[in-house]
């Protein structure tokens, strides 16, 4: 039996994430009663200064910052077949290592659902409407 060309070579090895490795990058803060909880989402592919600035400004909007991180299939669907450049596990570790980030929603939905807002007790959702350096976060929505 002959293998198809697609499977002629073994799959490429990827980073092996373990809970211990992830914990080494993670912030152990938990939201406290009365905290303003902020949510921002994206692919955060090849984390760069613009991403870090957005995360810093988003954190200033509240006390606890959740970052929704889209999975690889979601990034490819909305950004194109060439994306993401870095796989989810690596993007997760990069985002977790940022001092402004308190927790990450892994495989976050592209469309923010009421269930997500309710289950994480989100008070503000950051909306990125302009990526110019001087207008990184143009808007946020308070959740009633």
Describe the structure using short key phrases.
5 helices; Rossmann fold; single chain; alpha/beta; five-stranded mixed sheet; 5 strands; 144 residues
Fold and architecture overview:
With 144 residues, the chain is an alpha/beta fold. The chain has a single domain (34-142), classed as Rossmann fold. It is 29% helix and 17% strand. The chain is built from 5 helices and 5 strands. The protein has a 5-stranded mixed β-sheet. It is globular.
Query: What count of domains describes the coordinates?
Result: 1
What is the CATH class? Alpha Beta
Using the coordinates shown, work out and report the CATH topology.
Rossmann fold
User: Poorly predicted ranges (pLDDT <50, ≥5 residues)?
Assistant: 133-138
Shape call = globular
The number of distinct helices, counting runs of at least 4 residues, comes to: 5
CATH architecture: 3-Layer(aba) Sandwich
> Based on DSSP secondary structure assignment, what is the total number of beta strands?
5
Secondary-structure map:
Elements: H1 19-25, E1 37-42, H2 49-59, E2 64-69, H3 72-79, H4 88-96, E3 103-106, H5 114-120, E4 124-127, E5 139-142
Parallel strand pairs: 1-2, 1-4, 2-3
Antiparallel strand pairs: 4-5
Task: Please provide a brief summary of the model.
The chain is α/β, with parallel strands linked by helices. Helices cover 29% and strands 17% of the residues. The protein has a single domain, classed as Rossmann fold (3-Layer(aba) Sandwich), CATH 3.40.50.620.
